[in-house]
Amino acid sequence: MEIGVIFKIGAVGILVSVLGQVLKHSGREEQAFLTSLAGLIVVLFWLLPYISDLFETIKKLFTL
Predict the structure, then answer these.
(1) What is the sign, positive or negative, of the torsion defined by CA atoms of 29, 32, 38, 41?
(2) Is a pLDDT exceeding 90 seen at residue 64?
(3) Is residue 48 packed enough to be buried (19+ CB in 10 Å), middle (13-18) or exposed (0-12)?
(4) Half-sphere exposure of 10 toward its Cβ, with a 13 Å CA cutoff?
(5) What angle separates helix 3-25 from helix 29-62, to the nearest 10 degrees?
(6) What is the spatial distance between Cα 41 and Cα 47, in angstroms, rounded to a whole number?
(7) What CA–CA distance (Å, rounded) separates 47 from 58?
(8) pLDDT in tens, 51-62
(9) What is the pLDDT of residues 34-44, one digit of tens each?
(10) How far apart are alpha carbons 46 and 25 in whole angstroms?
(11) How far is CA 24 from the centre of its chain?
(12) Which of 11, 34, 45, 62 is the most exposed place for a label (fewest CB within 10 A)?
C-alpha cells in the first residue's frame, strides 16, 4: 500500500469531520450525514483495488 493513500484518507477524514461539525452546528444534520456518507464512499473506492489484490493474493495462497 502506498503511503500517499494513507495521507489521502487522513485528509478526507479531517475534511469530513470539520464539514460535519460546521453543518451540525448550523442545524443541517441531514447534510452532515450525507457528507459523512460521501466521504466513506470516496475512501472505499480508493481502497477497492487494494482489497481486490488482497483477495487475489489469498486465493493464490490457498490454490497452490
Answers:
(1) negative
(2) no
(3) exposed
(4) 5
(5) 160
(6) 10
(7) 17
(8) 999 999 999 999
(9) 999 999 999 99
(10) 30
(11) 21
(12) 62
Average pLDDT over residues 11-29: 95
Q: What is the pLDDT of residue 1?
A: 65
**Cα 46 from Cα 28, distance rounded (Å):** 28
Residue 25, domain extent = 3-62
Here the cell at position 14 is 479531517
DSSP string, 8-42: HHHHHHHHHHHHHHHHHHTT-HHHHHHHHHHHHHH
Find cell 451540525 and name the residue: 24
- Residue 3: closest CA among 39, 50, 37: 50
12, 45 Cβ separation under 8 angstroms: no
